């Protein structure tokens, strides 16, 4: 006789998982070369869907990686002193307010952990980087999506209007991925002044170096005098060609926010190779500027070609293009 009251393996396995995780869509990895080869494709492959830098990193970075490889039997510096010291001096912020992560993704998740819980809501631009949504949904918080303006940038007034008493977190992005629109200096100041002190303002500047090339405003400079809590996120994946090493950083507006992120982090959440590469990349700004120039020139060339085909790409200042192809 069989026990018909016993749950099926699938049901029992799901039971131990949080409801919010059970209801989430599975991770859908964008296809890369290995996937296409396994599917039988043997032609040339150009990766245009991951917003990577198509050029290799600085030769100084490659050399730093070689040197660091001999020491990977040791744990890395848990306080990332090498790159943090460079950024602290360059950005005029205390070193202890700079928190590094395994890419900006990890830091975005941590910001959700830091601020959100069941019954809360978070503001996100739509469409934008999907990690904002996941960082919210993982905490059981309500996602409030605010459509972009017609130029593909975050709609500041609409985002401010969407904030509720139960909203402790607002994600903004400039330039916005995937549209490429950036906020003006006036809009950034409006954000800094308009977001209530009870809400953490997060400005994602993953494409900061590309915006600077277009004489865009410096988001850090625009919001650093805000009295309420704030974080500016940047990365070395795009303009420095380090996407494969996964390293980003958060510039925190207060000791309390930085301390909160450090309470949540892993002991060694950035590996030794990535730290060595980051320090070398940040120390070779001339090569970094060259990378940005090459990518931006190609972006502008492709946009011109698209217009010649009758398409209307949005005015992107990132390293990517969005257009309606029907």
In short:
The protein is of the alpha/beta class and 326 residues long.
User: What does the main sheet amount to?
Assistant: 7 strands, mixed
Strand order of the largest sheet: 1-7-6-5-4-2-3
Share of helix, binned = 40-55%
Tell me, briefly, the overall form: globular
Broad structural category:
alpha/beta
Mean pLDDT: 94
Distance between the termini: 61 Å
Count of DSSP strands: 7
Looking at this protein, list some descriptive labels.
seven-stranded mixed sheet, 14 helices
Task: Describe how the helices and strands are arranged.
Layout: H1 9-15, H2 19-22, H3 33-38, H4 59-69, H5 81-91, E1 98-101, H6 103-115, E2 121-126, H7 131-137, E3 142-147, H8 156-162, E4 169-173, H9 185-194, E5 200-204, H10 208-213, H11 219-223, E6 230-235, E7 248-252, H12 255-264, H13 272-282, H14 285-308
Parallel strand pairs: 2-3, 2-4, 4-5, 5-6
Antiparallel strand pairs: 1-7, 6-7
Helix pairs in contact: 4-13, 5-13, 6-7
Task: Describe the structure in your own words.
The protein is α/β, with parallel strands linked by helices and about 325 residues long. Helices cover about 40% and strands about 10% of the residues. The chain has 14 helices and seven strands. The chain has helices at about 10-15, 20, 35-40, 60-70, 80-90, 105-115, 130-135, 155-160, 185-195, 210-215, 220-225, 255-265, 270-280, 285-310; strands spanning about 100, 120-125, 140-145, 170-175, 200-205, 230-235, 250. A seven-stranded mixed sheet has the order 1-7-6-5-4-2-3, with helices on both faces. The longest helix is centred in the C-terminal third of the chain and has 24 residues, at about 285-310. It starts with 8 loop residues before the first helix and ends in an 18-residue tail after the last helix. About 40% of the residues are buried.
